[in-house]
From TrEMBL:
InterPro entries membership: Class_I_gatase-like, PRibForGlyAmidine_synth_PurQ
Gene coding for it: purQ
Organism field: Micrococcus lylae
Keyword RNA-binding: no
UniProt cross-references to SMART domains, sorted A to Z: GATase_5 (SM01211)
Compartments, as annotated in UniProt: Cytoplasm
Pathway where it operates: Purine metabolism; IMP biosynthesis via de novo pathway; 5-amino-1-(5-phospho-D-ribosyl)imidazole from N(2)-formyl-N(1)-(5-phospho-D-ribosyl)glycinamide: step 1/2
Keyword annotations from UniProtKB, A to Z: ATP-binding, Cytoplasm, Glutamine amidotransferase, Hydrolase, Ligase, Nucleotide-binding, Purine biosynthesis
Highest taxon above the source species: Bacteria
Protein name as annotated: Phosphoribosylformylglycinamidine synthase subunit PurQ
Active site residues according to the UniProt entry: C115 (nucleophile), H224, E226
């Protein structure tokens, strides 16, 4: 069962007109950023739909959805390892089947994992590699500059190639690791989607901040685009102006992808 998420507030910023797309936002026990993710979806013009991790008809609930966001937070309190318990949720089985794993599937449901969502995607083996503690062993919260290395995924096509963006980063388990052959494969296939700029905040291998599956429909990243979608709330971007809209193209990109009829 799914419910459209009622939202309060002013939508007179971009994307006020509803465009017919329905995007699911998953909630686990301990999820933190589902409300902000839903608001970002709505600001892009799509309708956010709430998805519950333990839904007994998870596959049925995904049927009329066009994309899914797995938001940030501390699913199951990050016990054992961030995302390690969430991966066994019935909703994750349904998402994996609809998204198609590493290679993508015929449906190729677009899935965006943000921070804890990225951790859940690696634990679920929808994306390769693992997230471990930041190398300095501290929780970090900062406005982080990134380079968009691949603008041909379902969630990045509204960016320019190589575009510099700034969005918030806040986590303790943000260090992306993988063995050298996997890192070489990701680089070789253009699957590094975002790279940290100016500073590597957590020791991630090769400054990797986000990656995609082979088909380009599943994307995960540690920084939080849903916190940079409204004027006055996101990080300073250019010339000290508080524009803070660098997260919005994630959510409009998936709409462009859907409009063009492709998964990526
Ligand atoms: N902001 C978040 O999603 C936090 C993610 C995660 N559980 C961590 O600290 O690392």
């Amino acid at each position: 069962m799914t419910t459209e998420i009622p939202l309060i507030g002013d939508y007179s910023t971009p994307g006020t007109e509803l465009n017919g797309a329905r995007i699911g936002v998953v909630t686990f026990p301990g999820t933190l950023d589902d409300v902000d993710a839903a608001r970002a979806v709505r600001l892009s013009g799509a309708t956010p739909v709430s998805l519950w991790h333990a839904d007994e008809d998870a596959a049925g609930s995904l049927k009329d959805l066009d994309a899914v966001v797995i938001p940030g937070g501390f699913s199951y309190g990050d016990y054992l390892r961030a995302g390690a318990i969430a991966r066994f949720a019935p909703m994750m089985d349904a998402i994996a089947a609809a998204a198609g794993g590493e290679a993508g599937s015929t449906r190729g449901l677009p899935v965006l994992g943000i921070c804890n969502g990225f951790q859940i995607l690696t634990e679920s083996h929808l994306l390769p590699g693992s997230m471990i503690k930041n190398d300095h062993l501290h929780f970090i919260c900062r406005d982080q500059a990134l380079a968009v290395e691949n603008n041909e995924t379902a969630w990045t096509r509204d960016f320019a190639p190589g575009q510099r963006i700034t969005i918030p980063l806040k986590n303790q388990d943000g260090q992306y690791v993988a063995d050298e052959p996997t890192l070489d494969m990701l680089e070789g296939e253009g699957r590094v989607v975002f790279r940290y700029l100016d500073v590597n905040p957590n020791g991630s291998r090769r400054d990797i901040a986000g990656i995609t599956n082979a088909a380009g429909n599943v994307v995960g990243l540690m920084p939080h685009p849903e916190h940079a979608v409204e004027p006055g709330f996101g990080p300073d971007t250019e010339h000290g102006l508080r524009t803070g809209l660098d997260g919005l193209p994630f959510f409009t990109s998936v709409l462009s992808t859907l409009a063009s009829g492709g998964a990526a």
